[in-house]
Amino acid sequence: MDRVSSDDPHGALAGKNSEASSHGTRPRGQRVAAALTSAVIILVLATGSGWLALAQAVVFAITALDPRKGPYAYLYRLLILPRLGPPVEREPAAPVRFAQSVGFTFLAVSAAGYLTGLTTLGVVAAAFGLLAAFLNAAFGLCLGCEAYLALRRLTTARSA
26, 111, 115, 159: which one has the fewest Cβ atoms less than 10 Å from its Cβ? Predict the structure, then answer.
């Protein structure tokens, strides 16, 4: 993904009016959040709990508004960041917010599936969410962020 300090030095991809966007997000923090999300979604799949899927959807909704306000970001700042020190570079917040919105959609659909008895829908939606979270946690590949950047390139190319 494009980084604020290298490919996007002025933070143009991050958006204009958000404090989170102007400062960017911590890549390591996003990977820790993805690992915690993966663990929660594994529990959703193991237990079939629509309520746990709904709780994760709420976490995604909060983080989609501001990546720094989510509970996983708070845990990262409290428990991990003091041991690691500040990041060398930051990522723009807009792709992360978009990715969190996509995660919200998958987990909201999963919760609806489980809670209405459409278990297959719940499992499939949770599995897609797990795939995306795991790729981010394990390899630093944020599928939602990449989709955001691809959409930006497409819309920029069409308007030019």
Answer: 159
Nearest to 20 by CA among 139, 110, 100: 100
pTM comes to 0.81
Quick: pLDDT tens for 28-52. Answer: 889 999 999 999 999 999 999 999 9
Alpha carbon distance 139, 94 (integer Å) = 20
